[in-house]
Amino acid sequence: MTAVLAARQVTRSFSLPSGDVHAVRGVDLEVDAGELVVIRGRSGSGKTTLLTMFGGLDRPTSGTIEVDGVDLAAPQTDLDALLGARIASIFQTSGLIPVLSAAENIEVPLRIRRMDPRERDARVVSALEAVGLAGHANQRPAELSGGQQQRVGIARALVMDPGLLLADEPTGQLDSETGVQIMDLIADLVHRRGTAAVVATHDPAMAARADRVLDMHDGVLKTADLSLAP
Ligand SMILES: Nc1ncnc2c1ncn2[C@@H]1O[C@H](COP(=O)(O)OP(=O)(O)OP(=O)(O)O)[C@@H](O)[C@H]1O
Ligand SMILES: [Mg+2]
């Protein structure tokens, strides 16, 4: 089986007046369909830098990243098409559009893809159901709790049925109980749909739901020693 995500010897350095910052160093990682990988690591260890490159929004200084066997940096790669259809991201804040209802927010990626309206409506309804918000379709973000907003963000990320889901501290703004619920939801959806997922988090409760836990230290990614307390 080909991995959905394959990163090989990925590095990312930033040149600052004070010197070079080596944010990511020699990362090798393969993630298969239906696999949930959690990356833990202190602030500044390089998690966001790595996820940003996996999502095609930044390029490695060296090394390669492939999604579905397609090199994100190759000149012939249609990155927009790949990002629109195969890769979805969830962030610490839901990033919803305030003037749109929950259903309309979820519709946005489908409208961008010019999906047939009947199919679009059916997908929005099933995405709202999948995240337990069927009764909240017409509420705007400000009329939803933080956890509900994050659920809408998850529905919006998954409505295109992406092969790869990237989440950077998706529970960072939530209380711990809501955070656990959101992590359970992500794990359940990823496993049921066969999505490959990479989640960066400080939260030990999230690691408990992972198929694989990795630790990032100063830009280096290593298999976590789960016998040590997080
Ligand atoms: N655009 C940039 N220019 C210069 N340095 C950067 C840039 N982006 C990140 N860095 C540096 O790279 C290192 C890794 O940052 P990154 O944001 O990836 O860490 P993180 O693990 O996501 O931290 P946190 O847990 O606080 O979100 C840090 O030293 C940061 O200052
Ligand atoms: Mg970060």
Q: Can I get a quick summary?
A:
By secondary structure, this protein is of the alpha/beta class. The chain is built from seven helices and ten strands.
How would you portray this structure in words?
This protein is an alpha/beta fold and 230 residues long. The strands form two sheets. It has a six-stranded mixed sheet, with helices on both faces. It has helices at residues 47-54, 79-85, 102-112, 117-130, 146-158, 176-193, 204-207; strands spanning 5-16, 19-31, 36-41, 62-67, 70-71, 87-90, 164-168, 196-201, 212-217, 220-223. It contains seven helices and ten strands. Magnesium ion (MG) binds next to helix 1.
Key features of this structure:
binds adenosine-5'-triphosphate; 7 helices; 28% strand; globular; 4-stranded antiparallel beta sheet; alpha/beta; 230 residues; binds magnesium ion; 6-stranded mixed beta sheet
Determine the strand fraction and express it as a percent band. 25-35%
Number of helices: 7
What is the overall pLDDT average?
92
Q: How many strand units?
A: 10
Radius of gyration: 18 Å
Contiguous uncertain segments of 5+ residues = none
Helix proportion range: 25-40%
H/E series, N to C? EEEHEEHEHHHEHEHEE
